[in-house]
């Protein structure tokens, strides 16, 4: 008798970490629902066996439509990988609040809005696992990344609360904190970076920040490394609350252990 494949929804599956995760889980025998704003970049995943869905996390109707389609196909998911997100960069004084809200609409409210729609069926069945993809930016930030980091800090807090709230129902919540990963984040953030570089107040600072980011990103890890970490978080019988992985992820420990004044000097030396 053929065993039913475990089902998983991976958001932000059109590129980077999401695409690598969806592909790896397909190879491992999962039934993968891959969701992203655009379907075309996921053609290779579809050819591999993924079931594709269009998703705009910032749109409530889009979230509801996806949740309804998932319910029709499997009822309750075995796993949810909340990977979709985006970021813009710039000084806190000058970045428009509309752009900051846009970051939170996707990385926080959109992510939790979708999770709220999918959790009830998982809770009622009494098992399931949720992996929220955060970042080392959810533990410490650099100049110019305040709003993006704030959204990831928020995700860390929400994930901790969700883990405690759902434990008694048989659901497990895990946070994955990638370090510097070779994705298209730089391309997405490019327009906001250009605007920041042109600022007559913070332009010099942002040029130094950009140079610092470019240096550390030279050692960026492959998205596959994060995908493997996510798979481990999904399949380990007793997963840890958090998994760090990738280039510079060890810096989280240093940021926690060092006095703030020393940590600030280290960051300033590299980026200011």
TrEMBL record:
InterPro entries: KR_dom, NAD(P)-bd_dom_sf, Sc_DH/Rdtase_CS, SDR_fam. It holds the Pfam family adh_short. Residues 6-184 form the Ketoreductase domain. Signal peptide: none annotated. Keywords: Oxidoreductase. It comes from the Bacteria. The keyword Transport does not apply. One of its GO terms (molecular function) is oxidoreductase activity. The keyword Glycoprotein does not apply. Belongs to the short-chain dehydrogenases/reductases (SDR) family. This is Short-chain dehydrogenase/reductase.
